[in-house]
Specification:
Elements (H helix, E strand, L loop, with lengths): L1 H13 L14 H9 L2 H17 L3 H21 L7 H17 L6 H21 L7 H27 L3 H26 L1
Length: about 200
Amino acid sequence: MYRHLVTAVAVLASSAAQAHVGVGDTAGFAHGFMHPMSGVDHILAMVAIGLFAAHLGGRALWLVPLSFVSMMIVGGALGVAGAPLPFVEIGIGLSVVVLGLAVASSFDVPTALAMVLVGFFAIFHGHAHGTEMPETASGVAYGTGFVLATVTLHSLGIGLGLIIGKLGRAYGRRILQVAGGAMALAGIAILAGYA
């Protein structure tokens, strides 16, 4: 079983940089939407945020994803403006590791702290989106696309988290441990790819 998990993580991590190649026609809403959907690093981090928010429950269900989206927009604006941000890809890789571990460990923190944590990582994700927006793209259409993709992935994570929560403490906990652990391992593989 562990061999299959390691193989799956390696295959997923090998495509992590695909969201950052800018190959082909990259203008408009559809391409803004597909940018986060085409990189496993973005997908894993955003789904993990939804799982994390579902675990925390209450107001965290909407405040944690809202914090991420808000700070991602700030990071995107910085990227479009050409403001330098060091270690963007490392920050994205670390977000997958940290958020995966938060899911695996059922990390209980106050909602405000969870908002700060995801908001910090959102700046890196947003900067990557903004920096890679082509000059010919409509900033509003492209930005709307990547924001809606992010909200979609957060919603998927929240939905999965709520469904897993209904499986009962023992089963739900084990599923989250495996899912979060796989995410963290994928994040390590992503970081290793940048080394």
